[in-house]
Amino acid sequence: MPPTLSHVRTLVASYLNRHPGERDALAGLLAALDAGGDPTDGDPTDRSALPGHVTCSAVVIDRNRRVLHLRRRATGGLLLIPGGHVEADDATLLAAALRQAEEETGIPASALVLTPGFRDGPLDIDVRDVAPGPAKGEPAHRHHDFRFVFHLADDAPELALRDEEVTDSVWLPFDEVSSPTLRDKLAASARDGGIVPVNAPSGTVPNVVGVHLYLEQEGRVLMGLRHPDSAYAGGSWHVPAGHCEAEAATACLVREAYEETGLVIDPADVELVHTVHMVDRPDDPPRVQLFFRARRWEGTPKLREPDKCVAWEWWSAKNLPEPTVPYAREAIEGIRTGRAYTELGWGR
Q: Which of 243, 240, 234, 210 has the alpha carbon at shortest distance from 222?
């Protein structure tokens, strides 16, 4: 199953939070993702999608602060990082980048370690115009290339280049990286080549538990616009939610729902419909986000905590407002498609 639109939207939203000045450059990608909510439109991760589609690349860094580049036959010997199109079996864009790296270089995913600073999010999203390819019947189009950063493990095998596509490999220092946007971001990130396996266990740590109310009627989901000065997700849309205290998760849900919206819910009328296990940043504790559906409730939503939420509205589950808290969007997409579990921010 190819990456979901929700997955791609989440990565783009997180990226634009770090690089808001690139919103105009990514306007075409954002438009394609919005159009992807309509079943009559194409999937932007499909290589046949026009006028542009998503590709994925691997930024492989060794301990000498050098980045792996390849000379491909199809590009006339230009030096480019490993990468290519998304395929139907790629569950995530990160998985597509790892697959491309292994196919072109022979480096297995087990030898490519995620960085603590970026984890499974892209360091760079490059927009590149591609000339027509008459031999393949391809018109001129555009690539939106998601570039994921990996450190090369010490026990990585020697390169085994795919001869039919790649003629040579070169390791270039940061200041000689072929892509200007990638070169600038590598310099700004100060990646030192140190290998920190973020998916390695480091002892037992507490996980914060959050509870969330998924309230749906006639295909619409209740969402609140967070106050712009809110300590969390100011100016974003989110479902009613709160942190679990010394109480059962369903008791917390009932309490938070009443405190935020004035709705009265019986714990017997809720069911767990989705779980998100996530980490936001390397220094943050991991979080377990539980989403409960209420089958029945009493009352209508009211603004009981105006310092936290400035509006309650019902939104189509297929067309959520922007910006929506990324993990909430993932969870709602999972509920719609029957997926019970999502992981975000963890290395593979």
A: 240
